[in-house]
Automatic annotation (TrEMBL):
<keyword id="KW-0547">Nucleotide-binding</keyword>
<dbReference type="GO" id="GO:0005524">
    <property type="term" value="F:ATP binding"/>
</dbReference>
<dbReference type="InterPro" id="IPR027417">
    <property type="entry name" value="P-loop_NTPase"/>
</dbReference>
<feature type="domain" description="ABC transporter">
    <location>
        <begin position="8"/>
        <end position="237"/>
    </location>
</feature>
<protein>
    <submittedName>
        <fullName>ABC transporter ATP-binding protein</fullName>
    </submittedName>
</protein>
<dbReference type="InterPro" id="IPR003439">
    <property type="entry name" value="ABC_transporter-like_ATP-bd"/>
</dbReference>
<dbReference type="InterPro" id="IPR003593">
    <property type="entry name" value="AAA+_ATPase"/>
</dbReference>
<dbReference type="Pfam" id="PF00005">
    <property type="entry name" value="ABC_tran"/>
</dbReference>
<keyword id="KW-0067">ATP-binding</keyword>
Length: 248
């Protein structure tokens, strides 16, 4: 990437739970406007690392900065500069689409005039104008995911963290969701995304692959496929998993 401004920096980042090391001395950088894929099987340490980076879990060792703020001492500043979409659907299902947008706008500290303007723009952009006063619980999962992502970036954060954002949605809706990610990235928002869909790794500028708490590979999808003589990221991932198993 041409713009090499670093917005996430981790050096030897470690998280222990008793004798278990969930995140084992990981080191990486993420650049402004980049779509950075954080890949790995369930239990590889992806969500643990993400919780440290969004300021809700303290590391056991190492260093990290997010949007220029320290993960040990400046977690409140981190939270103000990021958006977050959790794996579990995070909007209020007993509120309407419009009410959810207004509620989260208030949480993010936007004034009433800005909230009204952003609500109108968002409803129009998503094509939800006719459904604005429907309860979120009545929407198809794909619609809810798109709304959740759009609300996560309502306050123009520098970075948005997405934890398995397309889990359980159909391939067409997944593709539409990635269109939203591209649009945000083109506006300079940095996207940090975890996924277990290896085809989605191809959509990222760079990917890191975690195996058992360690980053075993980090590069562009094209370079990784070349390095491992693989036709797909799925093949790359399985080669790394087999290699890790042999070295146990």
């Amino acid at each position: 990437m041409e713009n090499k401004e670093i917005v996430i920096q981790a050096q030897g980042l470690t998280k222990r739970f008793g004798d278990f090391i969930a995140t084992n001395a990981i080191t990486f950088e993420v650049y402004k406007g980049e779509i950075f894929g954080f890949l790995g099987a369930n239990g590889a340490g992806k969500t643990t690392a993400m919780k440290i980076l969004i300021g809700i879990s303290k590391p056991s060792g190492g260093e990290a900065k997010v949007a220029g703020f320290d993960v040990y001492t400046e977690t409140e500043d981190i939270k103000k500069n990021i958006g977050y979409m959790s794996q579990k659907f995070s909007l209020y299902e007993d509120l309407t689409i419009r009410e959810n947008i207004r509620f989260f706008g208030g949480i993010y500290g936007l004034d009433r005039k800005t909230i009204k303007e952003k609500t109108d723009v968002l409803l129009k952009t998503l094509g939800f104008e006719a459904e604005a006063d429907k309860l979120v619980s009545s929407l198809p999962l794909g619609w809810r995911q798109k709304l959740s992502f759009s609300i996560a970036i309502l306050h123009n954060p520098k970075i948005v963290f997405l934890d398995e954002p397309t889990g359980g949605v159909d391939p067409v809706t997944r593709r539409q969701f990635w269109d939203l990610i591209y649009e945000a990235s083109n506006r300079g928002v940095t996207i940090f995304v975890t996924t277990h869909y290896m085809d989605e790794a191809e959509y990222c500028n760079r990917v890191s692959i975690m195996v058992d708490g360690k980053i075993e590979a980090l590069d562009t999808p094209q370079n990784l496929k070349k390095q491992f003589h693989a036709d797909s990221m799925d093949e790359v991932f399985h080669q790394l998993a087999r290699k890790a198993k042999r070295s146990e």
